Every structure is written in C-alpha cells, then in structure tokens.
Amino acid sequence: MRQYQPDRKDLLINTAWGIPSDTLSAEEAKNRNFVLFEKRWVTIEEKELLKKQNDTYRSLRAIGLLFAIVAVAPAYFAFIRDTYLSSIISPTVFVINAFIFLVTAIGLWEYSGWARYVATALAVLSIFSGVGLITTPIVLYYLHNSVARQIFLGEASAEIVTVLPDSMRTFKLGLFSLLLFPLGPVAIVKGLQAIRRNKAAGLPRPTTAMVGIALGLVGTLACILLAVFLLRVIFFQQ
To answer: Which residues of 111-131 are buried (b: 16+ CB within 10 A; e: fewer)?
Structure first.
C-alpha cells in the first residue's frame, strides 16, 4: 500500500505498519488477534483505519483529477469543437475557470490546506449546474471526513481534528438539505450553535459546521424558490 505523505507519520498508512506475513506464523497471529491485510499482519482496528485512510487519499486524488477535467473540458468543446458555447461565453471566462480549477486540482494532489477550502466553495457552486446535485455530497464528504481533516490540517492540529458532534451533525444536515430543502434552516441553526460552543470552549470555528451552514443556505434558497414557484402555480395559474 502506497505512502502518500511519507513525512506525515501521524497517519498510520505513512508508517511501516503491521508485521510482514513471512515473519509470523498464522497460528501465532491468530493468538494475537491479528488479521492478514496487504500481506501484513495487523489488528482489526488497524485494518479499518488503513482502509479508510487509503480510500480518502485516493478519493482526494480523484477529486483533483475531476477538477482538472472540469477545467479543460469546457474549453475543448468551446474552441476545439467550435460549439455554441464559444459564441455566448467570453474566452476570458474559460481562461479564469481553467486557471482556478487547475490550481485547485494541483493543490488537492499536494494536500494543501487552502485547496480544501477552494474545492469546497467550487463544489457548492457546482450545485447550480445540476450535475453538482450528484457529485457535491460525495466531494464534500471526502474533503471533510475525519481522515481528510487530519491530512489537511496537519499533525499539530490534533485538537482541531476532534470535531464536536454538533459540527458533524450540521454537515450531514447540510448535505441532506440539498435533497430535502426544508432541512436547510435547521442546518444553519445547528451550525451557529456549534460555532458558539467552540468559541465558548476557546476552540477555532469548526470548518465542518461552516460548510454545513453554507450547504444549509443553498438548501434554504432552493426551498424559498420552490415555495415561490408552487405559490405561482397554485394562485396564478389560469
């Protein structure tokens, strides 16, 4: 299994984890409650943690690749294929779009902290494209789960990695509000409560709660627009 950040020994996957299978017999490993994983003996807890860390690292790379594709694809169809996009959108817009997405993609591949925030904003904005309704919840999960927070925040940020339950609840409510719009205001209220509790405890503002609030705002806006649309249909339909 690959070490994505060899200098980050606070993450198990970046260490010389486990015991080589040829140095320990199966019987002895069983007596010590070890299981075989990637030709090495580990505990069940270590196996689950390694799988989660590996999945998160690979998913962050995949998100970076997705962002690179998003940067290049519109320009390809607009200029190389000469589609209608080139006649309605200025080339400058494509250049700016490509620059932002490519730089963010590189930042994600290098696990830079700033790239996580920019990617979060871009993922939320992509909701308005329609496709984002499917991809955004997945992208936000892998940007803000417990392993991702540790990867981006660094070894010295163990206090910040331990997120209060209210913060994670806000994040989940925000995600669900993209499908169930009325949950948007609930996510906003829960997020503000989590921020207030962190402030009282002398901790930084929880990023997870702030992302949940942003998603809640999107859900709330969608809920208002849907309500206006339904009211127009009910009362103004002839």
So the answer is: beeebbbbbbebbbebbeeee
Q: Which of 42, 39, 32 is nearest to 12 (CA)?
A: 42
Give pLDDT tens digits for 166-179: 666 776 777 677 66
Q: Residue 43, SS3?
A: coil
Whether pTM > 0.70 for this model: the answer is: no
How many CB atoms lie under 10 A from the CB of residue 42?
20
Residues paired with residue 20 on neighbouring β-strands, in sequence order: 40
- pLDDT tens profile 46-91: 999 999 999 999 999 999 999 988 887 766 655 555 555 555 556 6
CB within 8 A of 86, min separation 6: which ones? Answer: 78, 79
For tokens 């962002």, name the residue: 67
* DSSP string computed for 107-157: HHHTT-HHHHHHHHHHHHHGGGGSTHHHHHHHHHHHHHSHHHHHHHH-GGG
**Chain CA centroid to CA 100, Å:** 17
What is the C-alpha separation between 26 and 34, in angstroms, rounded?
Answer: 9
Identity of the amino acid at 73: A
**Amino acid making up residue 106:** I
Question: How far separated are the first and last CA of the chain, in Å rounded?
Answer: 65
